[in-house]
Amino acid sequence: MTFSICVRERYTDDDGADRIRYGVAVTTRLPGVGTLCPFASADGAVVTQSLVNVELGRKGIEYLADGLAVDDALEALLNADEGKPQRQLHGVDADGTFAFSGDECNDWYGHVVGENYTVAGNLLTGEAVIDDTAAAYESDAHGDAPLAERLIDALAAGHAAGGDKREDLAVQSAALQVTNTEHETDDPYYNDLRVDASETPVADLRETYETAKRGYEAVMAKYADGE
Prior knowledge:
This is DUF1028 domain-containing protein. The protein is of the alpha+beta class.
């Protein structure tokens, strides 16, 4: 009932150390998708969807923190899940990618796995939704714009290609999370945002992100000199 993207990007921090940022973004024609589907930490990003089992996301992130590779972690969780044929689960960690679509998911469903990302969706208008989401991300991967902005662009491309096919459901939602491996540096709070109920969730997520970023920058500037 959803389409989503998980991303891994390597970068160099201000001290010259090699770092990784992870991002996840998701949208659906139901309210509150951000409470159920996306999970991200300094160890990776995971999305659980279709007939959602939230524990797959929660435990997936926990397993990554314990040092398991993303494919081993998520495969193990699926193999222990009696509802596996109805699940979609995908994600990335520092070195790998994983995507699974059970054969009892609702059409159209499927996934794409790239070198540094995964995209998956179900109950979509067609394959173009995930293809265009992936292409939009790939067109500016590791670009100058913040990852959160580029994730929203990817969702917008999937939405423009048709998105969730249930046009009779007007109340929708979207969410994004971006994390990184700079444990000593807090991620700006505008990198963890949700639009829980809207008829234009992707556009509203973009506006929320831009407004939150502007507010964050204003606060940082105001207190930069210890005011």
